[in-house]
Amino acid sequence: LSGGEDAFVTKISTLSKWLVYSTYIGGGNYEYGRSIKVDNCGNAYILGSTSSTNYDITPDAYQTTCQGYDAFITKLNPTATSIIYSTYIGGDNYENISNVALDNDNNVYIVGYTQSTNFDTTAGSYQTQFEGGLYDGFISKLNILSATLFSSQGTDNQSACVNSPITNITYKTEGVTNVTFNGLPNGVNGNFSNQTILISGVPTVVGTYNYTITITDGCNTKNITGTITIMPPISASLASAATDNQTICIYTSLTDIVYTTAGVNNVVFSGLPSGVYGVFNGDSIIISGIPNVSGPYNYSITLTGPCGTQTLTGVINVTPENQITLTSGAGSNNQTVCINTSISNIIYTISGASGVNVSGLPTGVSATFVSGVLIISGTPTEEGEFSYIVNLQGACGSTMGTITVNPNSTVTLNSAAGTDSQTVCINTPINNIIYTTSGATGATVSGLPAGVNATYVSGVILISGTPTESGTFEYTISLTGGCGNITQIGTIIVSTCNSINNPQTSINWQIYPNPNNGQFVIETVEPGEFELMDVTGKKWNTYKIESTRCEVIDNLPAGVYTIRNVESGMVKKMIIK
User: Fold this and answer.
1) Contact status, residue 185 vs residue 232, Cβ threshold 8 Å
2) What is the rounded CA–CA span in Å between residue 132 and residue 125?
3) Is the overall model pTM greater than 0.70, yes or no?
4) Which pLDDT value is given to residue 501?
């Protein structure tokens, strides 16, 4: 007995009728036990009222001091040999407890009445103020088995560098008798003492660790979880071998310099040549570009991250261009020639190069380089536009030009076949003779009979007119302004057509073969008389034919002749080879 009146708890076996345990509960003044509940593990929850300021209170108690005549709740272990949890509940006046209940998680629900105007209430509860009168009732819920983060907010979900101490993680507990830890990083440990959980240490392995803390009161358990992410130290390594110290020509693409990184969240580049840039992609760095200023460049890359800094260095030597001078005259590097015609020599003087590489020349054109002089010469044998490039060897620089090789001009008969070798009567219009051309800018036509003319418009030659003289006229077309010595020959035979004024158009006879070698057949369906004449109008023979007849002529020279049917006046041309 510790005071005027103590509460007590007694357990009696219903089988043996013996006392299992019995104990005082009290301080130096008055205690009154009001209610009791026992959980599934045999822990006893005793509720009552006390005026003792030295009532047994555990360090993790919700309220550790008596402010008047307060309620209390005390949790005994199954043998009543120790107090698991004990706390005052009350304000600065009078509190009394009427009953207690437990839920499946062993949260404690208590009901009672109070005269205290400062009795603790929770924000948002049904009634947060004492409303007057002699007493107000109250209901309170206590989580006797609990763990609350006591260290700074976020320490239970933190990132730390490998081989560096984590920020200590601290939990304050209530009603806990034992704690187990799972999932902590190597080098990090958990400790439990005096209702305090402490997680601390130096992690040694990179990774993400989802840890679990299991608390128990010897019967019930609860889990508290958190995450510790262990980050690697900052690191970077060259992934593109031997590219961090390179020499290149100005205006030439840099070979990409690539680094792989870890633990980096910011990168600063300095000392790169103009035209060259660095890019950070989270886990890699790429330096690329085309330098446009010559000189040596000692570059540096400063890496920063949550776990340190690192500096990378390298050298980019940008060599200026060597001098390439065209000495064969302005414009000679860009020329137009005809196919199978020699180009004008293209000559460059070059300083500082050990050799050259010339690409893109047409077939038949080649380059020679001797003692700093480059000569491009030859006769192109293929048509087209050829853009050539001169690249220096053992030095920096390049130049380019164009050789355009035009094809030979062409002339093609576009009017009906045979119009370029026709026979007409004098003072009768010829059938138009039309040619199309390519590659030429003009044409001359010679050998036409009087009265027949030629015109050239937009690549088309038109020969037309009415001949006023008889004879055989072999005309020649010569193209101008293009490539090649291109000519075309044709024949116009102008016959006098003696006594033929109104030839009939009915066809009732024929000659075959035509052309022939002097042996031919005149075939007629009606008897008739036929005259053989040359282009001058000279009559060579007259044939009177009753039916099909074969005439063999041995004394006629090769040439163009006409055969006229006397009765109809119809004239046909015949060629003897």
Assistant:
1) no
2) 18
3) no
4) 41
